[in-house]
Amino acid sequence: MELEGRISTGIYGLDKLIEGGFIDKSAIVIVGSSGTGKTTFVMQFIMHGIENGEQGLYVTMEEAPKQIMKMAKRMGWDMEKHYEKELFFIHLKGKNFKKMIEEQLPQLVKARADYEIKTRVVIDPMTPVIWATPDKLAQRELIGKLFYTLKELGVVVATVEEHAKPGETVGEDVLIPVYLSDGAIHLEYYPVGGAFNRTLKIIKMRGTAHGEGVYPYMFIRGAGMVVRTTPMERAVVEKRKYDEIFDEAIKTAEHLKAPPTMIEKLKIMKENWTYDSSPEEALEIILESYGLVGK
Ligand SMILES: Nc1ncnc2c1ncn2[C@@H]1O[C@H](COP(=O)(O)OP(=O)(O)OP(=O)(O)O)[C@@H](O)[C@H]1O
Ligand SMILES: [Mg+2]
Questions:
Q1: Looking at per-residue confidence, does 13 or 289 come out higher?
Q2: Nearest residue CA, atom 28 of ligand 1?
Q3: Is residue 295 in some structural domain?
Q4: Which of 12, 21, 91, 173 has the CA that lies 20 to 30 A from 43?
């Protein structure tokens, strides 16, 4: 379902969380540490448009178009077929982003804007623009100008690499792009195994009543990113199921006269168990290490 004026993201499940898609001519930032799937996200977004008769403009900094297209092929998207027909690249290399963003880019965009073809723009990664200057004010001006210029064409999705410190919701290094954006999505990866160790969270989405949960997503070759959109209901059911397992373990421990400190630990674990997997195995190991259950 796509609401009027909404641009379907092409990320399976995501549209449902943001009232049908991104608002046209908005700037969206995808934040995540290395390897979370930012490139996958933007490739899927741009290819979804192309598959539906739109055009795509891919702004790169470090990697050449050839490398990007090779990577896309590995993920199952044939970009070469559309190269310089519906899919165009701007390779902003070198250090002089300021000159490029302030002078060359507006000219390029002006030439394209006259065509009146729906265009999706991605900037992947935008991080080098931030790193180009340590001066926060200059960063703000540069990123603001970049968004302002490219939004003329259509939705702009930019990726920003973050290095969040433990306990931070989003890293300090990404505050400026998030602030200047109309919407921001956070991707996280917990390398702990399990089916849903990658999660997506919508930090903001202007003019949109958006999902507020933490949504697990996975990669499927040939399809791309798939977001599970019902975190709450399922999590609640699982929590209740897991609670029973904890209660059982606590009862067993009490029955076997386990030390109070250990029972206290199990209770804390129960309250804090937010993982996708069952606590059964962990409980068994813990009980066993206290010598409470036989091997
Ligand atoms: N189709 C797929 N099937 C399985 N795993 C995949 C698939 N596509 C991507 N991945 C996994 O996602 C990881 C990251 O993908 P991606 O390149 O999109 O991340 P990124 O956030 O752009 O990383 P970087 O910051 O290094 O650019 C890959 O290393 C790979 O493990
Ligand atoms: Mg990437």
A1: 13
A2: 35
A3: no
A4: 173
